[in-house]
Amino acid sequence: MRRRSFLKMSLGGAIGAVALRPNSAAAWQSRAPADSYAALVDLTRCIGCRKCEQACQQEHDLPLPMKSFEDLTVLDNQRRPDAARFTVINRYHSGRVNPEGQLVADYVKVQCMHCQDPACASACITGALSKTAHGAVHYDVNKCIGCRYCMVACPFEIPAYEYHDPLTPRVMKCTFCEQRLREKQLPPACATICPTEAITFGKRSALLKLARRRLKEHPGRYIQQIYGENEVGGTSWLYLSAVPFSKLGFIPLPNKPLPKLTETLQHSLFSYLWSPALLFTLLSGLFFFNRRKQLQQPENSAGHAGGDV
Amino acid sequence: MRKTSQAFQRCVFVALLLAVALLDPQPEPVRAAGAGAPTDWLAPGQQQALERARQTVPLIEAIRREGPLRRREHLHDLGLTVKAVKTTYFYLNSPLISAVEDHYTGVRFNHGQHAAQAGDCSVCHHLRPEQDVAYSPHPETVRCSACHQQAFDERVPERPGLKAAYHQRCIGCHKQQRSGPQVCTDCHLKQVPDHAKLVKLPEHPDALQVTAECLRCHEAQAHDMLQTAHWLWRGPSPYTQDRSREVLHGKGTTALNNY
Q1: How many degrees, rounded to 5, is the angle at CA B164 between CA B180 and CA A98?
Q2: How far is CA A216 from CA A219, A220, A245, B172, in A?
Q3: Is the Cβ pair B168, A196 closer than 8 Å?
Q4: What is the average pLDDT across A70-93?
Q5: Measured at the alpha carbon of residue A203, what is the angle toward residues A202 and A208, in degrees to the nearest 5?
Q6: Cα separations (Å) of A183 from A132, A186, A187, A193?
Q7: How far is B204 from chain A (nearest CA, A)?
Q8: More confident residue, B238 or A64
C-alpha cells in the first residue's frame, strides 16, 4: 500500500465513523422528574433561629454539636454542611439597613440543592447517587465504593465524607427527608419546624408559581430572581431574597445542566466504542505501514551497501 | 431594776408566742414538697382561653381582597376600634400546631393591650372572609385560625399556616417596635418532656443509680458541669472583691478536698 492511499483510506474511515455514529449530542435528554417535590426558602422570612439545624440533627440522628443549637454565636463564622450536619444557617451583612440606619442581617440556609439533573449522580460510577421521582438525590450506601467523585462534581460542594470512620465511611448530605415523607407523610423536618415558614414545601411547579406570585405582589421586598429556577438546569431547593444572591454566598452558575456537557462528550466519544475502535484501527494501520516500510528498507540498504563495496 | 423588768417582759412575750403556737388548732397548711403553684387555681378567664385554644374551626377558603388602607378605613367606619374588643385575653395554642411540632407551650396573649397599643385592628385582622361565619359575631375580625391552619395547604398555597402566621406577625412587629419579647422563651416556655415517663429507676434507688440515670441522657451537661467552679473549686469569682481574677487558695488548690 502506498503511503498516500493509506492516509486517504484512514481519513475516509474516520469521516465515515463520525458520520455513522449515533447522533447522541443532540439527543441528550434531561432526566428531571416531571412532578417532583421541592422546597422554597424565603430568606426575607428567615430569622436565623437554627431550629432547622436542630430538627435535621434529630431526624437523622446525627451527632450533637459541641455548642447548643440555641447558641447563636456560631453564626459569627461562616460554616458549611459536613459529615455531622446536613444543613447550616449562615449570617450575612449585605449592607441593607433598617429605617433607623442599622445593619440588617440576612440568614441563608445551606444544604444539598437536590438538582434536577445532579452532577453528583452523573459522576457516580456505581449509581449510588440517583435522582428519585420524589425529587431527592438519593444516596445508596450499599452501592457506594467511596471514590468521592460526587464531592468533586457537586457545584455547591455539598457531599461530605466520614473521614473519621476508617471501616464504613459514608458520603453524608441532606436526604430531603425522603423516608419521612414516605413513611409519615410529613414534609422535611426543617420545613415543619420552621417558626416563620421560611421554608415552604410542595410540588416544584406549584412553588415556582407561588414564588412568582410573591415577587409580583411584593416587588419592593424581593429582588426579581428565583435562585434555583434555572441554575444548573434547576434545583429542588429554590430561594427568594431581598438582596442580590451574590452577596449571600450563592455562586453564579450556568443555566445548563452540568451533566449535559460531560455526558454528551462521553456518550458521543464512547458510544459503541467507536472512538477506541477507530484509534486502534489507525494505530494498527500505522503499525503495519511502518512494518512494511521496515521490511522493504533492508533490501534497499543492502543493495546500496553492495554497490558501495 | 429596769433591766430585770425588760427581761421579764421579753420572757412573757416569748411564753405568749409559744402558747399561741402550741394552742393554734389549725396550723398553716404546708405545701407538699415538689409541688408548684396550687393546681386547682386558674387565673380569671384562663379556663375559657384554654377551651378556646383547643377549638378548631373549618378553613375559610374565599377571602375578600382589600388593600391595607381601604381595610383600615373600613374597620374604622364599622366602629371596630379598641372599644369593641370583647375578649382581652387569649391563650395562643392550637391542636393544628401541636399535632405536627410541639416544642413550646402556648403563649399568653393580651389581646386588649395589643389592640390598645396598635390602635388599629387591621394590623392583625388584615383580610376578611368573603362570607360571614356563623361562630363569629364579627366576620370582620375572625380568629387567626379561621384562615391560617395547616402549613403547605395545597388549597391555599400562598397562605402561611397558623404557626407561621403568628410568628411572622409577632416577630415582625416586635422587631420593628424594639419592645416586648425578643427571643423564643420570652413568649413561651420550652415543652420539657414528662420525666416521669423517661426516668427508669428501681424501687429504692441509691444515689449513684440516680446519677447514672440522669447521665443516660444528660452526658453533655455533666461534662459541662465538670468544667465549672462547682466541681473544680477554683476559677474566677467576678463578683467577689479581690477574687475577680483567680482563686489561689481553697479546695481546688491549697486546701484538702474533703468531698
Answers
A1: 55
A2: 6, 9, 18, 21
A3: yes
A4: 95
A5: 95
A6: 16, 8, 11, 18
A7: 33
A8: A64
Residue A308 pLDDT level (bands cut at 50, 70, 90): very low
Fold of A37-256: Alpha-Beta Plaits (3.30.70)
What's the pLDDT at A114?
97
Measured distance between the N- and C-terminal CA atoms of chain A, rounded to whole angstroms: 32
State how far the Cα of B258 lies from the Cα of B51, in Å rounded to an integer: 55
Q: Which residues from chain B sit within 8 angstroms of residue A39, using beta carbons?
A: none
Confidence band for B43, pLDDT divided at 50, 70 and 90 = confident
By Cβ distance, the residue of A49, A64, A210 closest to B157 is A210
* Domains parsed from chain B with CATH numbers: 46-187 (3.90.10.10), 195-227 (no CATH)
Q: Is B64 helix (H, G, I), strand (E, B) or coil?
A: strand
Q: Is B216 helix (H, G, I), strand (E, B) or coil?
A: helix
Query: Residue B137: is its pLDDT beyond 80?
Result: no
Gap between the Cα atoms of A31 and B196, Å rounded: 52
Of all helices (H) and strands (E), which one includes residue B221? helix B219-225
Q: Are A237 and A41 in contact (CB under 8 A)?
A: yes
Single-letter amino acid, residue B72: R
Write down the pLDDT at residue B123: 93
Which cell goes with B54? 383547643
* Cross-strand bridge partners of residue A103: A97
Q: How high is the mean pLDDT of chain A? A: 89
Tell me how far the alpha carbon of residue B153 is from its chain's centroid: 29
User: In chain A, what residues touch B164 (CB-CB under 8 Å)?
Assistant: 45, 194-197
